[in-house]
Design goal:
By secondary structure, the chain is α+β, with helices and mostly antiparallel strands. The protein is built from 4 helices and 8 strands, in the order ββαββααββββα. A hairpin with a 7-residue loop joins strand 3 and strand 4.
Length: 116
């Protein structure tokens, strides 16, 4: 499994899917209390911060998620990112590859100027 990877300014490892298959692989390895991100609209990688994350790590990962999304690519406007814990992710029969449900999430609005 080859995931996108980067480090936050505080040194936290962040993993991101590239497509439906790698999003599946990514979600399988997420810890219950780890932070996960996905844009409100379809067409973005799932992004996961490994271990304990601070506010700055969360913001950096949310910007990364937004920057890699089709929403940003196609519209070049603010992007709404959903932020949730691993334990809030679920998958039911019939959900297609790379698709997951989320029980509860917070919304992070990423401004256009933060993405440019």
């Amino acid at each position: 499994m080859k995931l996108r990877e980067f480090e936050t300014t505080s040194g936290k490892k962040v993993l991101a899917g590239k497509d439906a298959n790698t999003n599946e692989d990514l979600i399988k390895q997420v810890g219950a209390n780890e932070e996960v991100f996905h844009t409100a609209k379809p067409g973005s990688p799932f992004v996961n911060i490994k271990g304990e994350a601070n506010k700055k790590d969360i913001k950096e990962a949310a910007i990364f998620c937004a920057r890699k999304s089709q929403d940003w690519r196609d519209n070049k406007t603010d992007v709404e990112v959903h932020h949730f814990k691993g334990k809030d992710i679920y998958k039911t029969k019939g959900m297609k590859l790379g698709t997951f449900g989320v029980k509860k999430f917070k919304v992070i609005k990423i401004k256009r100027k933060e993405l440019e």
